[in-house]
Amino acid sequence: MMIDLKRQIKNNFQDVVSDYVKHAKIQKIAANHLFNYLGNVKLPDGKIIDLGCGDMMHSLALADIFKRQVHAVDLIACNNEQENIIYHQHDFDNFKFDKQSCALVFSNMSIQWSFCLEKLFLNIASGLKRDGLFIFSLPISGTFDELHVSHRNQFYTIENVSEYLFKAGFRKMQYHQKKYILNFNNQLQALHSIKKTGAHTILKRHDESKKGLSSIGNIFITDKAQLSYVIATFCVAGIGWA
Ligand SMILES: C[S@@+](CC[C@H](N)C(=O)[O-])C[C@H]1O[C@@H](n2cnc3c(N)ncnc32)[C@H](O)[C@@H]1O
Description:
- This protein is of the alpha/beta class.
- It has a single domain, classed as 3-Layer(aba) Sandwich (Rossmann fold).
- It has eight helices and seven strands.
- It has helices at residues 2-16, 20-23, 25-37, 57-66, 117-127, 158-167, 187-196, 216-219, and strands at 47-51, 70-74, 85-89, 102-108, 128-139, 173-183, 226-237.
- It has a seven-stranded mixed beta sheet with strand order 3-2-1-4-5-7-6.
- Helix 5 links the parallel strand 4 and strand 5.
- Helix 5 crosses helix 6.
- The model has no long low-confidence stretch (mean pLDDT 93).
- S-adenosylmethionine binds next to helix 1, helix 3 and strand 2.
């Protein structure tokens, strides 16, 4: 069951990867916030990792900014070898981070797909250098509030995420959250926009009994053709900064 779900996540992203950039408006905005955190940062020596790298657009930007190789990790297959990118087709939930080897762990709009965020944060905490940085974004609670709960994922809150970071040993962090509303010509187009970014796998239904309902009227709880995204960005210092 869990393996099927992981396969579904992978297939849904794999299917759209070549056209992803055309539709990933919110993902690009989120990435810009992350790059702002990196503004004048001087990283220690060590690996740069891009978790859930997708089409590697941001891995390439990181390689360019920091003039070093980037380890790009994603479930999907990559047939586009790039200089300065070491691609790992791997599940980040089982990724082996060598102890205190990473100068930067970067992840844009991906770790919400983890099956256990608490465990992932623990692994990242052990893989990050004490003076390294963990920078990430994810959609949080309030996202897709226009959709019936049985037709969207349960999103974390800022409090959940901060608590898991704290439990993993991180003490210094800054975060930011902002709501964006995308408008469409009609509700079908709104739903297609989710599919075109591969983000339509439902990890955990709020109500299994509603599984069969699929007419638009049952999916949206409003007449509006819009989708809200509440995006949180985090800049977290390695545990040696405390
Ligand atoms: C919304 S896309 C974001 C891609 C890229 N980071 C960006 O900003 O455009 C989410 C990515 O996370 C990847 N992903 C989801 N679950 C994953 C997992 N368990 N391990 C590795 N990658 C995963 C998906 O395959 C997809 O490429």
